[in-house]
Amino acid sequence: MTTIDKNSSNFHDFSYYTTDGLDKKVSISIIELEGKLFCEQTSKGRMILDSLISEGLLDTNHILLTDPDPEIYVTVQIWTDSQPLTLPIQSSYRPFVNSTRVWNEIVEFPIKYKDLSFNSILAFTVWKYDKDSNLSIVGGNCFPFFSKKNKFKEGKRRIKLNKGAPADPFTFDYASFSKNRTRLDSIEK
């Protein structure tokens, strides 16, 4: 019989819940959108930029136009094995001014934590209305609910959007997701 000393380095104190013990609905909080929202250039806008560049007033062909007051919202959906578990849920519409894009909104899903599988992911897509009321995609990405060790991920997370593309749960690769971590991602935990 082996005795483990609590002061030794072999002893690890931990506690856990199994997901079947969590009889609460899945909810997430959408806090804010950071960074610049880029718009596609129209042909008229491109002609103006070309004339400014040809006159020597601008020195680059890689200029992106930004909309100072975008009208945006977010859709989120839970997926498992490339199958939707819920319908997409939309955040409230918010007109943002002065580059401040803060929602502080809790979105609740009609599914409970105990019903999630270990490969469940959350798909985010950010949408934008332009001044002509045309809808376009700002970007999207997916985020797993559980780590590779099947531990539920909790707390604030930074989700980097794929510019101009919706969330794609069909091609989500957990291995590539965990490889793209930065030092800031570790600090934010």
From TrEMBL:
Coiled-coil residues: none
Domain of life: Eukaryota
C2 PI3K-type domain: residues covered: 22-189
SUPFAM superfamilies, sorted: C2 domain (Calcium/lipid-binding domain, CaLB)
Matches recorded under Pfam families: PI3K_C2 (PF00792)
PROSITE patterns: C2_PI3K (PS51547)
Family: Belongs to the PI3/PI4-kinase family.
Identification of the protein by name: C2 PI3K-type domain-containing protein
